[in-house]
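ok so i was messing around last nite and threw this chain in just to see what happens. nothing serious, just curious
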Amino acid sequence: MPQPVIAFTIAPGLPREAEDAIVTAVGYIDGVEAARRIAPESRVGEIQRIGIAFLTSGPNAPNPEAMASAIRALPGVESATLDRAEQLAAALREAAEALAEALATAADPDEVVAQIQAQEQDADDAKQAADSLAVREKNARLEAETRVGQARQAADEMAGQAQAAQADAAAARADAAAARTELRDRIIEHDQARQAIRQEADQAISQARTAAAEAIRRAEADADAAVSAAETRIAETERQAQELASQARADAEALVRAAEADRDQARGQAEQHRQAAENADQRATAAEARAEHAHAETARAWELEQLRADAERERDDVLARLNDAASRLAEVTRANVAELEQLRTDAARERDELRAAMESRAQVLEESRGELRARAERAERDLDSARAELAQARQEPGAAETPAAGRSRRGAPRGSASREG
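result:
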């Protein structure tokens, strides 16, 4: 009995380690004897994802469908199918075993022959189905091999492209190595230049520090000398200030004595001035009274002047308003005169038009009256003629025809009269 085989495919997009772990997990399932890839060294991903599992054979062999379901239940397995050719071969084997058992236990040869024929027919049908399935499987294998060849060709092309890419990568790595070497050389040169600059800077800093220390020492000496000279000048100034203060004190005492003498003299003069001031106050009071009177007079005069100016301004305003009113009245009068003239003109024109209309209407009425008079005269003549004809008709025989003729004759003048009207 051939060993059952289950083909399974791994889901795309998984890394190689995960695919290897899935194949290993399929091999660890109870009832699976071994599991492997179809082409583990192929560069085509579709072929690498296909694996086969060999099931254990014998009396304790597991159910292939259950094993296929168990394999499909694994994470990462896309599908798992049992080889149909193997199933048909198993069915044929079971049929042969049943036929052998029937031959061993049969008692009626005719029945045995019939069973054999039936079994042969079933076997032939199964063989034909197996042959057709084998042909389909063969065609599928050929197509798969064709696809594998195409995939291998594509893989070879990809390998060539990969080699070209590797060559480009090698050239790029060489360029990168050269660039790194050049960069390292420039870095070394930069470090050397930086060290030289640092040494120069240290020397400049030390020189600057030395010069600064010398300048500080000189400044301290100059400051000490300046402090000594300032102290000397301060002492001299204090001495001169004391002398000036003594002299100023003596001068102030002399001035005080002179001021006291002047004060006494000023008191006498002040008394005289006070009396003169009292007299002046009296005169000033009288002058203020006169000034207030004059101020009042001036205020009244100013008020009168203001009133006169206001009166003049109001008079000018009244005159201006009167002039304005007179001009407006003149304009209104002129407008009224013009309007009155226009009304007179319009009235005359309307009167002339009305007169013309009345005259034309009177003429029309005269014409209508003359026409009506003519119609009345014609009507009277027609009536007279009708009466004469009626009288004649009454006198003549054939009165039945005559009134009709008379009516026809009477009708003609009336029609003519209506046309004339």
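not much to say yet. The helical segments are 16-27, 45-48, 64-72, 84-105, 109-395, 401-420.
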